[in-house]
């Protein structure tokens, strides 16, 4: 028997057909991938064994039952709230959660505990895009659809190694270019990557040089008469101030030559159908939100948005980063794209939930949340489906901060993780293939993840674990769900109840799904105001979500280049691994691609340090050290380094790169600057 479900890795959200014997195939009917899979998706069947799984609740390292563990978690959280207030507890969740899990966790924290200290690893992924969208559109809306990548005549990939990080989208673009060789592709990235090989032009932009690059483009569009004056007059505010900021910027600060700038600007200006795809190289920066708005400015100025083959396109890292956004999964959001800082929105959500209290302000964002753990403000912490002691910047500081919390719960599928080893209580979660729910991919498409394996041991789905703790805290009436379908219907019904508020997100057409209809739900792009009717694109004819219905162009300025004498450290993904390798590390063939922690370094820098190939290189931020194999390559520029983010301390004692990445964040989005560390390098 086979089951149609969705890949649990990246934000492409590919449909897969899975069998209990581990056979995995791409789903030819799924509109994200039409049967394609990448190496990670193809190897899913090799990752579903039970080795290393957490199969029972553990308290203080001793196996216990659910009743005892649930009661203990509820009591410790209730005591922390009673003694120190609701701000003294926190949840750190994950884009690996299904929408139903995410919804219940947010409802508990924001509507019942009454604080907003729930943030997720999605903060590391696309918080700058959310902030940029909201500033420009008045809503967190991805305007386009994957098909636009096939309709475009020019695709600009900014800060995105799509070939490794969103491989099936890369495959779709490669196929489109093969069919239409006149399609042009530009890759904007300080580093030459596998993605650059498909590009007609690779622009080795300076780290954080993107604002200068796109401000220069805006100035060029204005000077060359390419601004769509009619679209701007009808649908956009802020053009003049954005252009003034662009004129005040020196495009040379992008680090590119005048010739390269002229070629790129001419291409972009002269091509109507242009899609600008961007990812973590844009988002993970201390000026990530400004970078996003610099890109959006150019599309708004030309009206190249929401029509086939044109628009800005943020691709998310995780399978359900978008679903998390829909349920208010970040500390500065409320469910259903309601605004946490809008009292009418908060009141309406509270009335819908019939909740006793409500958060009144945004909570702590990821980096600040763990600083609050370090300085003693957080008395009880619950980490769900993620490994912040490895994946956050200053990973050792985060591990020390977690140790400092009086009571920590970790719910996970694995018995041993760097974070789980620090917990007082471990709760066994059901994993991919064992649990059911929905996810939303980067093009706003809601797809079902369906179970096809028995749930092992005492593991439970996250929505059930959270609901049981909520019930033990005294709120059982509001968390009496029997199934993920129950949770989803409530999520969709909230959408119906919030219709009086003008918002982009609307899935009210799914509020009446029967269990059978939910189970059979076909992939659909929101909004879904009527069952079976999704929407591919937004904004071709305006209709933005600021009160006046217009978009806003933002005056953004480029950061001045900083010379520090240290190496600039860029971090990211390998082709065949996912996050901290919890699952992909189980598939031997995925380990053969790049088997050890390594650092890419320019051959000239390697020579200067006396480093040969595969010798041990020490990176230091002055406080901590990481030790990696050197990989001399001219894919990186002089003074630049690249290292993958996957290795935990458990897999490679000194290979956890985030121990030497500092905690700088974007002041608007709170997203950590994981692409811009400063380190010293030396031979071991
Ligand atoms: Fe999974 Fe992403 Fe690969 Fe698709 S592209 S199979 S969603 S990892």
TrEMBL record:
Gene Ontology biological process terms in this record: cellular respiration; nitrate assimilation
Protein name per Swiss-Prot or TrEMBL: Nitrate reductase
Ranges where the 4Fe-4S Mo/W bis-MGD-type domain occurs: 1-50
Keyword Metal-binding part of the UniProt annotation: yes
Family: Belongs to the prokaryotic molybdopterin-containing oxidoreductase family. NasA/NapA/NarB subfamily.
Domain of life: Bacteria
Keywords for the protein's UniProt record, in alphabetical order: 4Fe-4S, Iron, Iron-sulfur, Metal-binding, Molybdenum, Nitrate assimilation, Oxidoreductase
Gene Ontology CC, one term: membrane
Keyword check for Metal-binding: yes
Cofactor: [4Fe-4S] cluster; Mo-bis(molybdopterin guanine dinucleotide)
GO MF annotations, alphabetized: 4 iron, 4 sulfur cluster binding; metal ion binding; molybdopterin cofactor binding; oxidoreductase activity
């Amino acid at each position: 028997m086979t089951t149609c479900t969705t890949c649990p890795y990246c934000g492409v959200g590919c449909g897969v057909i899975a069998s209990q014997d581990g056979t995995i195939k791409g789903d030819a009917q799924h509109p994200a991938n039409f049967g394609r899979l990448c190496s990670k998706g193809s190897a899913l069947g090799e990752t579903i064994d039970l080795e290393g799984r957490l199969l029972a609740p553990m308290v203080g390292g001793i196996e216990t039952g659910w009743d005892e563990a649930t009661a203990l978690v509820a009591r410790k959280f209730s005591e922390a709230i009673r003694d120190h207030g609701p701000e003294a507890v926190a949840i750190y969740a994950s884009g690996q959660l299904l929408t139903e899990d995410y919804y219940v966790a947010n409802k508990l924290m924001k509507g019942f505990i009454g604080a907003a200290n729930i943030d997720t690893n999605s903060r590391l992924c696309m918080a700058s895009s959310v902030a940029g969208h909201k500033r420009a559109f008045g809503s967190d809306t991805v305007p386009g659809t994957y098909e636009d990548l096939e309709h475009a005549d020019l695709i600009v990939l900014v800060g995105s190694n799509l070939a490794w990080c969103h491989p099936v989208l890369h495959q779709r673009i490669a196929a489109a270019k093969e069919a239409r060789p006149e399609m042009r592709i530009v890759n904007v990235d300080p580093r030459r990557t596998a993605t650059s090989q498909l590009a007609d032009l690779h622009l080795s932009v300076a780290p954080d040089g993107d604002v200068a690059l796109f401000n220069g483009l805006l100035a060029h569009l204005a000077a060359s008469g390419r601004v769509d004056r009619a679209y701007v007059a009808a649908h956009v505010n802020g053009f003049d101030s954005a252009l003034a900021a662009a004129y005040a910027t020196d495009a040379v600060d992008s680090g590119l030559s005048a010739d390269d700038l002229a070629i790129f600007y001419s291409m972009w200006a002269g091509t109507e159908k242009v899609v600008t795809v961007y990812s973590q190289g844009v988002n993970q920066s201390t000026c990530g939100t400004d970078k996003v708005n610099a890109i959006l400015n150019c599309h708004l100025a030309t009206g190249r948005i929401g029509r086939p083959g044109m628009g800005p396109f943020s691709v998310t890292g995780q399978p359900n980063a978008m679903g998390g956004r829909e349920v208010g999964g970040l500390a500065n959001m409320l469910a259903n794209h309601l605004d946490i800082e809008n009292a009418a929105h908060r009141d309406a959500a509270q009335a819908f939930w019939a909740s006793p209290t409500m958060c009144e302000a945004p909570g702590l964002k990821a980096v600040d949340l763990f600083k609050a753990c370090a300085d003693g403000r957080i008395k009880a912490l619950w980490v769900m489906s993620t490994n912040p002691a490895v994946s956050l910047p200053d990973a050792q500081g985060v591990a020390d901060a977690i140790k400092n919390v009086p009571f920590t719960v970790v719910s996970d599928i694995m018995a041993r993780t760097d974070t789980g080893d620090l917990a007082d209580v471990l709760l066994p979660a059901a994993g991919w293939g064992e649990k059911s729910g929905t996810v939303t991919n980067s093009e706003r498409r809601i797809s079902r993840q369906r179970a096809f394996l028995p749930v092992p041991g005492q593991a439970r789905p996250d929505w059930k674990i959270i609901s049981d703790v909520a019930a033990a805290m005294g709120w059982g009436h509001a968390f009496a769900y029997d199934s993920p379908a129950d949770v989803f219907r409530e999520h969709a019904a909230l959408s119906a109840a919030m219709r009086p508020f003008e918002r982009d997100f609307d899935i009210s057409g799914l509020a009446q799904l029967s269990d059978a209809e939910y189970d059979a739900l076909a992939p659909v792009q929101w909004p879904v105001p009527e069952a079976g009717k999704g929407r591919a694109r937004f904004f071709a004819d305006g209709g933005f979500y600021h009160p006046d219905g217009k978009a806003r162009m933002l005056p953004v300025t480029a950061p001045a280049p900083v010379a520090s004498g240290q190496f600039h450290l860029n971090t990211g993904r390998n082709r065949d691994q996912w996050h901290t390798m919890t699952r992909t590390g189980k598939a031997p063939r995925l380990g053969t691609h790049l088997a050890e922690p390594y650092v890419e370094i320019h051959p000239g820098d390697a020579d200067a340090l006396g480093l040969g190939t595969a010798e041990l290189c020490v990176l230091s931020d002055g406080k901590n050290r990481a030790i990696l194999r050197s990989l001399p390559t001219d894919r990186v520029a002089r003074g630049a380094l690249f290292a993958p983010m996957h290795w935990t301390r458990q897999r490679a004692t000194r290979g956890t790169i985030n121990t030497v990445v500092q905690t700088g964040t974007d002041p608007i989005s709170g997203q950590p600057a994981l692409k811009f560390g400063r380190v010293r390098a030396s031979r071991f």
